[in-house]
Inverse folding.
């Protein structure tokens, strides 16, 4: 490596500009916000998250699997390419290895933050039960962390020595760190021989360790009776996904470092092209594994499997699934396959971003719908992340970026001594500079690509669309409101007062004569019932329960309607339920509770 | 002791064998040291769906609240839950007390364990709240305290024991433990007693090894109770070896 190149690599260590402080402090602010979210969760319990049974795992576990998977990057680039002695790897091994260590640190935090009793986290070691897949995870991740830390540190020693010798302006503390961490490196042939041998041993070690980590992670899921998880293809599925998202993450991180630290001389277009090709291979493998995972269950059609598959193919989670398949798998495959885009760093970067988004969704699709589908005839579970879940997710990603940023300011992010030996060669491909025209053109295509995915995603992610609309015919036969009484086991009641603009649309009577539903249209529609229904009033003959339950959740307030006991909920929509004359009445509308109370109080025999 | 290569390999192999034998052991041990083998019989023909069992359970065990869209009864966790399965048949589902329990198998800290009389218990002093047992239980008979449950003064006074898991607290898993504090004293669980007091006697509890079950008042022969009734376990095909026996309604579903 030319001396000027070495100076370019060392420049970020010499001078920290205002942009660094701005970026670092905003990332730190996000991490601290996540810390606050965790404090709230710790103080009040997991009730502040969106998790409820049966979806008892949410974003925390999704992030755990996703971020640990990213850590595969160091192994694949650095371990495998080092063993096969691929020359072009040298400028990017350091980036890959540092992602590995930082991702394991951040990823392993997530399950600990997710515990109902985080203060008992040490029980995982003190009372470790070897038969539990979670213990396999603890052991595998712990071992992997130590190994990848050593694997990051060993090739760093000669570079720390360079820092020690050539950054005279470093502060006293940093000088102390460099002096002690370089372990007296002088670059003697004997030292170099020992180091290279140690690195080689570690390179051999980290590969099986990484495979074991992602397999153990998959066994947490596949070693249960849940239909969505109980699959033998899960370990390779997880390892493949880890390689895939690991490669994408290296491309993203190296793109930013290259631009921010002006490392165009070290990280060339060639690296993007080659990593893009590797990502294409991983992409095709993932498409293959995904088809394998879903093929057999959808062909055989077991009830529980079908319930899960219809949930992700056409149901509530279809937006996520098709976004993953199209924008996360197929579009990146084309982007990295066609020479026009595959030879352009910006396009490869764009493909990598899509891959990372797609792979996060893939983890979400495994964890959340997998738990939502019951094994017996129970209702399908629901999950909507709360601000705590989202804050901790953002904080985790910000923390990962912050760790990488700090690392790159303390140590050379491109391996200096290894690049010195390696043939760098002229890049055979265009190392693109991002011109304004490129920016516009790529921006348009990127927006189109995201729009395709989001188009299928939006209908499912709109607030309030958590339930499929209720078919009115499910409520029974439509009858004239005046003659409803003749079809019922009880005499119906009609409200005398109606809110402004609310008009009776129809009355429906259940086939067993035990339920009457009065359906009203009006200005503020109820989303649950389609477009024009604004208020619904149920009357159900009830003999088993004569009043509201003894315990009520905090969102329900006890109330009385003409002397009968009941409860009310202010919300979107609001509701009042009360028990009167052997029947239960339920009034639902997107109106203030007081208004509903007036309607309820005006009820009388028709 | 010097660890030679031979010793290391032998030791590794022995550990592997020991681990492999563990699940086999839990299959084999069907009775405890006294030879007891607890069973729970649920006669669907007699159950009229009054839910007195759930109410009695919630009173007896100070059962904590359930949240939002969770399975619940009266706003609280339904440790024994009565489902309307159609055709006028009601089906109470308590913890199945599997003898190859998925929840006990996956617990990373051994907080879920088999008591010496083979009831699946949970030590809430050890539970870390990872909720793996909730994910593992195919019967969804595991519950979780998402926040600190409201507590009566009376409940606070009770010293904690895994035999009744009172007082309840946040961040730990909950389950029906077949009222172990009662069964240890020779009484039937609270739900069984409530069912008999409601005049149905659809729930029976007893010891299969002695061929006796009781509704809290009369004790009958288990085999006589089951005879010709087409008794079955819920989802036997899971291989979980459940200890609850269901008797289908007589004369089919109306």
């Amino acid at each position: 490596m030319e001396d000027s190149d070495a100076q370019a690599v060392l420049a970020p260590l010499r001078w920290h500009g205002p942009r660094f402080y701005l970026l670092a402090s905003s990332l730190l602010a996000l991490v601290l916000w996540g810390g606050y979210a965790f404090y709230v969760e710790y103080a009040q319990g997991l009730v502040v998250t969106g998790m409820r049974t049966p979806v008892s795992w949410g974003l925390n576990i999704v992030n755990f699997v996703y971020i640990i998977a990213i850590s595969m990057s160091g192994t694949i680039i650095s371990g495998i390419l080092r063993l096969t002695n691929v020359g072009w790897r040298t400028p990017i091994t350091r980036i890959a290895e540092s992602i590995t260590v930082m991702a394991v640190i951040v990823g392993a935090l997530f399950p600990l933050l997710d515990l109902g009793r985080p203060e008992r986290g040490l029980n995982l070691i003190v009372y470790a039960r070897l038969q539990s897949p979670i213990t396999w995870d603890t052991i595998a991740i712990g071992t992997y962390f130590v190994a990848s830390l050593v694997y990051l540190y060993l090739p760093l020693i000669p570079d720390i020595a360079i820092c020690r010798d050539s950054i005279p302006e470093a502060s006293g503390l940093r000088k102390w760190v460099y002096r002690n961490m370089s372990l007296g490196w002088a670059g003697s042939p004997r030292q170099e021989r020992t180091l290279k041998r140690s690195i080689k041993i570690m390179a051999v070690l980290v590969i099986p360790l990484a495979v074991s980590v992602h397999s153990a992670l998959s066994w947490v899921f596949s070693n249960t009776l849940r239909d969505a998880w109980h699959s033998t293809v899960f370990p390779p599925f997880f390892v493949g996904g880890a390689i895939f998202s690991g490669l994408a993450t290296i491309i993203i991180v190296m793109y930013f470092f290259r631009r921010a630290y002006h490392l165009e001389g070290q990280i060339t277009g060639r690296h993007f092209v080659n990593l893009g090709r590797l990502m294409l291979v991983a992409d095709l493998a993932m498409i293959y594994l995904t088809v394998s995972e879903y093929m057999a269950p959808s062909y055989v059609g077991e009830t529980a499997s079908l319930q899960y598959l219809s949930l992700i193919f056409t149901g509530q989670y279809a937006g996520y699934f098709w976004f993953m398949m199209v924008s996360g798998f197929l579009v990146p495959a084309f982007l990295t396959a066609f020479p026009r885009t595959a030879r352009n760093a910006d396009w490869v970067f764009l493909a990598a971003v899509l891959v990372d988004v797609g792979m996060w969704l893939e983890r979400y699709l495994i964890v959340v719908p997998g738990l939502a589908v019951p094994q017996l005839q129970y209702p399908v579970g629901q999950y909507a992340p709360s601000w705590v879940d989202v804050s901790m997710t953002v904080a985790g990603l910000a923390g990962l970026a912050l760790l990488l940023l700090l690392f790159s300011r303390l140590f050379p992010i491109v391996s200096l001594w290894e690049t010195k030996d390696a043939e760098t060669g002229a890049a055979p491909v265009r190392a693109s500079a991002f011109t304004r025209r490129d920016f516009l053109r790529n921006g348009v295509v990127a927006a189109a690509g995201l729009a395709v995915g989001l188009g299928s995603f939006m209908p499912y992610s709109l607030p309030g669309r958590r339930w499929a609309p209720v078919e009115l015919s499910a409520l029974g036969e439509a009858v004239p409101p005046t003659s409803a009484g003749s079809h019922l086991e009880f005499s119906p009641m009609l409200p005398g007062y109606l809110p402004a603009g609310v008009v009776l649309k129809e009355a429906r009577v259940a086939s067993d004569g035990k339920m009457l539903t009065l359906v009203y249209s009006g200005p503020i529609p109820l989303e649950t019932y389609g477009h024009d229904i604004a208020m619904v009033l149920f009357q159900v003959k009830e003999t088993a329960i004569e009043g509201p339950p003894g315990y009520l959740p905090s969102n329900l307030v006890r109330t009385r309607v003409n002397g009968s006991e009941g409860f009310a909920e202010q919300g979107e929509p609001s509701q009042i339920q009360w028990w009167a004359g052997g029947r239960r009445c339920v009034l639902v509308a997107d109106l203030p509770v007081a208004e509903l109370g007036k309607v309820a109080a005006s009820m009388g025999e028709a | 002791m010097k660890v030679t290569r031979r010793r290391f390999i032998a030791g590794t192999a022995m550990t592997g064998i020991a681990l492999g034998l563990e699940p086999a052991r839990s299959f084999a041990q069907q009775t405890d040291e006294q030879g007891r083998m607890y069973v729970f019989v649920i006669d669907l023909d007699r159950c009229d769906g009054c839910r007195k069992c759930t109410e009695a359970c919630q009173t007896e065990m100070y059962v904590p609240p359930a949240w939002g869209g969770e399975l619940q009864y009266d706003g609280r966790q339904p440790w024994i839950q009565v489902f309307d399965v159609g055709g006028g048949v009601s089906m109470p589902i308590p913890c199945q007390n599997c003898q190859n329990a998925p929840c006990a198998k996956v617990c990373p800290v051994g907080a879920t364990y088999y008591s010496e009389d083979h009831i699946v218990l949970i030590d809430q002093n050890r539970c870390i709240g990872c909720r793996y047992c909730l994910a593992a239980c195919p019967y969804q008979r595991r519950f979780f305290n998402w926040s600190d449950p409201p507590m009566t003064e009376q409940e606070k006074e009770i010293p904690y024991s895994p035999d009744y898991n009172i007082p309840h607290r946040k961040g730990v898993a909950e389950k029906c433990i077949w009222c172990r504090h009662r069964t240890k004293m020779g009484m039937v669980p609270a739900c069984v007693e409530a069912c008999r007091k409601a005049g149905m006697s659809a729930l029976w509890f007893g010891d299969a090894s002695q061929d006796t079950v009781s509704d809290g008042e009369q004790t009958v022969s288990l085999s006589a109770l089951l005879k010709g009734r087409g008794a079955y376990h819920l989802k036997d095909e899971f291989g979980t070896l459940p200890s609850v026996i269901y008797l289908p309604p007589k004369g089919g579903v109306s």
User: Anything to note?
Assistant: Chain A has two domains: 3-224+235-290+384-441, 472-605.
